[in-house]
Amino acid sequence: MKKEIKQAPAIFNSISELHRAMGLPKPLHPLVSLVNNSVINRNRDEMITSLILNFYKISYKPNLKGKLKYGQGYYDFDEGGLLFVSPNQLLATANDNGDYE
Question: Which residues pair with 70 in a beta bridge?
């Protein structure tokens, strides 16, 4: 059995840092940003699979197919939903099969 290598989560201290990592233009405001993830042009191999944000994040996921790790547990978003992330929480994908639009 192949042992899975765990990568340390990426830590983002600002919205600008997150925009740069996602290949997005500079945010219009330093404290608030609205991003449609379907327009992100990143290769799946380049995507960050686990991260820690040092700011609050609210996401609306209308059709996420897969599980998302938030804190210590995994949550099923097959039917979509709202996700509220507080600072210093681990946010990670559970597998590579999901549609993370």
Answer: 73, 91
